[in-house]
Amino acid sequence: MDESVPNFASLADIYCDTSTAGGIPLDLSTRWNSLLSLFRETYGCAPDFVARSPGRVNIIGEHIDYSLYDVLPMAVTADVLVAVNVLSSPLVKIANLDAERFPSQEFHIPVEGDIEIDASKHEWTNYFKAGLKGALQFLRRKCEGDWNPAGMEIVIDGIVPAGGGMSSSAALVCASALSVMVANSHDVSKRDLLDLAVVSERAVGVFSGGMDQAASIFSKRDYLLDCAFFPSFHAEHVPVPRSNPEITVLVAQSFVAADKHVTAPKNYNLRVVECTFAALILAKLHQVLLKPDSSPLGFSLRNAQEEIMRKQNRLDQAPEEQLMAMISIAEEKLQKKDGYTREDLADILGTSVKNLEEEHMSRFPVQADKFQLRSRALHVFSEARRVFDFKKILSDVQNAHGGLGEQELRLLGNLMNATQKSCSEVYDCSCPELDQICAIARQAGTYGSRLTGAGWGGCTVHLLPQSNVEKVTKALKEEYYSKHFSNMTEEKLKQALVISKPSSGSAVVTGAAMEFHHSI
Ligand code: NG1
């Protein structure tokens, strides 16, 4: 767990793709060359290093990381690159390969004091600044005495679709934080990078769970990442057993932009607050005390489960039985099916509405008259159970040295379909377009189809036999893309439908790799 972020000299160590030239995917080498050329044009020298962090697709476990339940994502090939030349004075100059959408900026790093980020102004550089802020706070704590932050000349290129459920923001924050650590000559462990990237992302105005940053940092090529958050973070690489028929993961964009930073008060942040209240109310009704935990507001449903199970002497029960018990408890105790007002919550918790708002709703605004505790808790407990069942199918097959057959694949698919149903009907984080894409894809031959990431737009993920890829993509093109978007180009369709393989996580790239690509 204390492993350092790897340093690679060859891009072939990072990317896995079959369409390669000399082991390197062709369009990726073109992209690296564009980055390095722009760097030279802008700053008159080659970068000292490139920090990279990928996006991710979550296979199962949606909206439960901030309740500290296990999730199962994997990193994708699409990533963010931050090319850096280190300066001795604390000046930061940032350019982006897509200069039209992301204009250049310059600012000074305060020698003392914090980096200011105005979360109400939606600027792309906020994400870099968030990474910088987290890294500087970390470095100031670590480096005692006379320490001055290094300046940086930077060119950034990100190809993780924004607002697309593939975690472009976490990829940018992780790559930025990593670049600052390396520019300040700090050998950074994956664990430290995770801690500071999660805190950094919360500075941009979202009560982020830890899944995206964990997947971006810890992932390993060809493996899924089993992330556990309770009682503390732990990640394991899960092999995907061979299968007959051969399977593929397809990611399909809805092109409904889901900007969770803009909609957070009614969507993402509100869900975090609702889950926190559900934890506090369940604990209160069972007269158990919760110690603060690492969830965004300090009290998670997983923590409430632990304490309630302890009180009922059920801690030695299997995790799936405990989760079934929590489902019954939520059904019995969280009775208000149409939601809880602030007064209801204050009343049960024995506090005032003012205190309630100050303690749990003051860091970021949330907009709601009623808080849906029952449905949110039921989604969380049932989704945590689905993750458990999904992992068990994989590990049983792996332990028996067998392969996934039709029966196991159908079971995995059913779990993904059940997640979609719960996201749509219980957690209320889907949208008609996501529901429609999943229905079309299933009809055309996937085992399982569901939204991935925060939802309310963005991406869907599908598990399907390799042999059905053509049928499913054709159905999606005809029945979704061409119906919703009259002028969809081939280029845009290529971005919309991507076969994803588990990729490697954050890395620093130096020396030979960059020169090699520069000379292609
Ligand atoms: P997206 O919006 O797809 O990056 C968000 C959260 C995750 C997790 C998922 C829902 C951030 C950075 N990411 O993912 O932690 O809660 O929603 O499962 O906030």
TrEMBL record:
Pathway: Carbohydrate metabolism; galactose metabolism. Its EC number is 2.7.1.6. Residues 405-481 form the GHMP kinase C-terminal domain. One of its GO terms (molecular function) is ATP binding. Residues 38-85 form the Galactokinase N-terminal domain. GO terms for cellular component: cytosol. Keywords: ATP-binding, Carbohydrate metabolism, Galactose metabolism, Kinase, Lipid biosynthesis, Lipid metabolism, Nucleotide-binding, Steroid biosynthesis, Steroid metabolism, Sterol biosynthesis, Sterol metabolism, Transferase. Transmembrane segments: none annotated. It is an enzyme of class 2 (transferase). It catalyses: alpha-D-galactose + ATP = alpha-D-galactose 1-phosphate + ADP + H(+). GO terms for biological process: galactose metabolic process; positive regulation of transcription by galactose; sterol biosynthetic process. Residues 133-219 form the GHMP kinase N-terminal domain. SUPFAM superfamilies: GHMP Kinase, C-terminal domain (SSF55060), Ribosomal protein S5 domain 2-like (SSF54211). InterPro entries: Galactokinase, Galactokinase_CS, GalKase_N, GHMP_kinase_C_dom, GHMP_kinase_C_sf, GHMP_kinase_N_dom, GHMP_knse_ATP-bd_CS, Mevalonate/galactokinase. Belongs to the GHMP kinase family. GalK subfamily. This is Galactokinase.
